[in-house]
Amino acid sequence: xxxxxxxxxxxxxxxxxxxxxxxxxxRSHEAIRQWVQRLAPICDRFDVDRKLVSxxxxxxxxxxxxxxxxxxxxxxxxxxxxxxxxxxxxxxxxLDAHTFLKRxxxxxxxxxxxxxxxxxxxxxCRYLRLEHRVYPTEWKNLIERMNQSLKDRLECFDDMFPxxxxxxxxxxxxNWISVFRFYHxxxxxxxxxxxxxxxxxxxPEYLRFIDIIEKEVLT
Length: 219
Known about the structure:
The protein is of the alpha/beta class.
């Protein structure tokens, strides 16, 4: 199951992952989708140590859930190259920004928040007594490089994860992003630093993925 989820995260396609697994075991793309959903609560346990976080970049990107526009708010630590947290909402407002930033403050403390020139960020930070800064143009590419892989995948949600529930609670999307966050921080090799952001083991990625999860389950 863990290897199947790893193959899916690498291949970006449930059906392709199913075909790759055929020499080992026959499982449908729907089975792999369910594996991802089941793995999310375990991946939620992996947070970045707040003592390591010095500043936080925040950005948001639009996705579609059952054809409806939604927004994923993402937080990154640029020095660590870590995907810190995320929030999903159907609106993009000061209230939504406040909800996400309040959660970041609770988890990581009173760290400076760097954003683009979105008008809702300064007010939300002021209410929470958080220092707000607008990152300069030369830093724009930095944050775009860090979260571009997430954005590329999120744009596929409407096709990859069509929701049959008219009153979707977004849980299946949240689960997928949680697994992706773990994969980004602990498994996938970052080309700029030559390793996964939160791991120093130089072994094969698929073994690292399996070993970390198994140790967490057994402890």
